[in-house]
Specification:
Elements: H1 3-11, E1 32-34, E2 38-44, E3 47-52, E4 71-75, E5 80-83, H2 89-99, E6 107-111, H3 117-120, E7 131-135, H4 136-144, H5 153-174, H6 178-201, E8 212-214, E9 217-222, E10 225-230, E11 242-245, E12 250-254, H7 269-281, E13 286-289, H8 299-320, H9 325-331, H10 351-366
Parallel strand pairs: 5-6, 6-7, 7-8, 12-13
Antiparallel strand pairs: 1-2, 2-3, 3-4, 4-5, 9-10, 10-11, 11-12
């Protein structure tokens, strides 16, 4: 593939691609516990950031099209809270199995940061003893949106695995160093094996809404730990939850704020900018995003706001010229933001996000 096609194909891994950035926290400072399918970075006492792998293979930009989002484990005095549940029941079972390397305490709470499949489609493995908590909007979305036949599930599950395979094949074909070729051959084999398993895994999915919802704020007190679930406003979706640990000064932001360019296909753009302002006002020192890598610099949030503003300005201009959404997705030039978001590899943007910008502008004009 050429660079534009590669960037476009990888963009179809909606919510599955997470890029490390110049401002993202490197993994080295955090102690690591290696599980069979997840690598856990210890962020604070009892707080772990879980990155999915495939037989030890890590994916470009932190992407895993098979297990999905990066998850969070919060080990309390008597129980465990997890943030998001992964792409499928198989992914969730693998996650719970690996958590046993950290603790023998039971998972009693699952927080869904938003409704997208790579954060919620593991919900069905949990029994009635587990409270699955999310914003009111998440329950409505899972019950009403027919999510297995709509975006981001439809394109991402169909195209993301092959896009990743194609990327490794392209790199392998270009690589001359025999040692690096061996590394790439393993990555390719692991990815092909995971893709075959994924075809079966997604057949098991049964969208399962949260059994506990809230509107603005919900607080869990587990032992001596306070866990705040906050709805700061619409943004990435209509019901994004920020998990805030005030004592530890940690936030888990799902896809509201990643260390890469987030999927925009369900977004409310003007509100997203304001919601990110509210996020910056929280007293935290580390963000554990739904994709990518932990980061400590709130300047990255400002950089993403700048990206969103640039998208809106460029698309508005093209739209006024009569350019259709798919062509606008090919034309927008956001490469000026690559210094903060290296997953921007070429001119153009993920088409579903630009289609959503057009639809959002139509919605605003009707008001």
């Amino acid at each position: 593939m050429n660079s534009r096609k590669t960037a476009f194909a990888l963009g179809l891994c909606a919510g599955l691609l997470g890029a490390g950035t110049a401002q993202a926290q490197p993994s080295a400072p955090y102690p690591v516990v290696q599980g069979k399918n997840y690598k856990f970075q210890k962020i604070a006492d009892g707080v772990y950031y879980a990155l999915p792998e495939a037989n030890g293979t890590e994916f470009p930009f932190g992407s895993n099209p098979f297990f999905g989002a990066n998850l969070v484990v919060i080990v309390n005095k008597d129980d465990v809270v997890i943030v998001d549940s992964g792409t499928s029941p198989a992914a969730a079972r693998a996650f719970v199995a690996d958590i046993k390397l950290l603790t023998d305490k039971p998972v009693r709470y699952v927080v869904n940061t938003h409704w997208h499949y790579d954060h919620t489609d593991g919900n069905s493995i949990f029994g009635p003893e587990v409270q699955i908590i999310a914003h009111d909007y998440v329950r409505q979305a899972i019950e009403k949106f027919d999510i297995l036949h709509n975006e981001p599930f439809r394109s991402s599950t169909r195209n993301a695995p092959q896009a990743m395979i194609d990327r490794f094949r392209e790199q392998l074909a270009a690589e001359k160093d025999p040692r690096q070729r061996v590394v790439l051959q393993k990555k390719l084999a692991d990815t092909e094996a995971a893709a075959r398993a994924f075809v079966q895994d997604i057949k098991e999915i049964k969208p399962t809404p949260p059994n506990v919802t809230y509107t603005d704020r919900l607080v869990l007190y587990r032992g001596g730990r306070e866990i705040d679930l906050l709805f700061l406003g619409r943004g990435h979706t209509g019901g994004d939850t920020v998990v805030f640990l005030p004592r530890e000064r940690i936030v888990c932001t799902g896809d509201l704020m990643e260390s890469r360019i987030a999927f925009m296909g369900s977004a409310f753009f003007d509100e997203w900018l304001k919601t990110l302002d509210a996020l910056k006002r929280l007293d935290f020192t580390v963000d554990l995003p739904g994709h990518g890598a932990p980061f400590t610099d709130k300047g990255l949030i400002t950089a993403f706001q700048s990206y969103l503003s640039d998208v809106l300005a460029q698309v508005a201009k093209l739209r006024a010229q009569g350019v259709l959404a798919d062509e606008a997705a090919r034309r927008v030039d956001l490469t000026a933001h690559a210094k903060d978001f290296p997953d921007i590899e070429s001119v153009g943007a993920e088409v579903r996000g630009i289609r959503r910008v057009y639809a959002w502008m139509d919605e605003r004009n009707k008001k």
